[in-house]
Amino acid sequence: MPISAVSPDPATRFIAFRLLDTMLKLISPLAQLSILKDFMSAQCPFPQMRVAAVGLVKEHVLAALRQTTTSPFSSPVLMQTVGPILLRPQPSDLFEHNLQLSEFVDSYEPARLVECMSFVYVLLQVDQQNRTAVRDAMPEFKAKVLKPIEERLKVWEPEMEKDDEVSMALSGLIMSIERFDSIS
């Protein structure tokens, strides 16, 4: 895993990442989900992998939802397993203290949150039958992620207006929030 997370060469990271995905497909879906959960967790020492693993989970879920057979990726097991990671910031109390804008922007958390929000949004669009129980998880997602980010962005707005680079760094979060506002 480290080469797919820390190689300075984007092509090498991409190839290693695709190889990792190929190897995951050689094991049972439940084992895949368990490994991906570990990659996404705060205990994973590679923040880049925590971000990228969300994309892998999304790929596996979308593939499973196209199948008629049940898989952990297309059942409530998904949200039971990765919901506590996807539906909360890392650390879970991130927005409960006076988080500074520079501290937030300099971390991998904005990218991870954008990936998580993108995943949840796509899942809401695709999983119309709520096979994964994503709709049941929305109140928690709104309370733990969407609302705290919106509140923090309001506090940071004056700083963001002064710094285009910071505004660009957070534009993915802003667009993701707007997406959810449009479906609420």
Task: Please tell me about this protein's structure.
With 184 residues, this protein is an all-alpha fold. It has one domain. The protein contains nine helices and no strands. The radius of gyration is 17 Å and the shape is globular. The N and C termini lie far apart (38 Å). The mean pLDDT is 92.
List the helices and strands and how they pair.
Elements: H1 2-6, H2 10-24, H3 29-40, H4 47-65, H5 77-86, H6 101-105, H7 109-126, H8 134-162, H9 164-183
Helix pairs in contact: 3-4, 3-5, 4-7, 7-9, 8-9
Compute the number of helices: 9
What is the number of strand segments?
0
Task: Determine the mean pLDDT.
Answer: 92
Distance between the termini: 38 Å
| Shape field | globular
Strand content: under 5%
In helices, the fraction of residues equals over 70%
Gyration radius over CA:
17 Å
Number of domains: 1
Sheet bearing the most strands, described? none
SSE string, helix = H, strand = E?
HHHHHHHHH
SSE-based structural type: mainly alpha
Low-confidence stretches: none
Quick structural summary:
By secondary structure, this protein is mainly alpha-helical.
Keywords summarizing the entry:
0% strand, 184 residues, mainly alpha
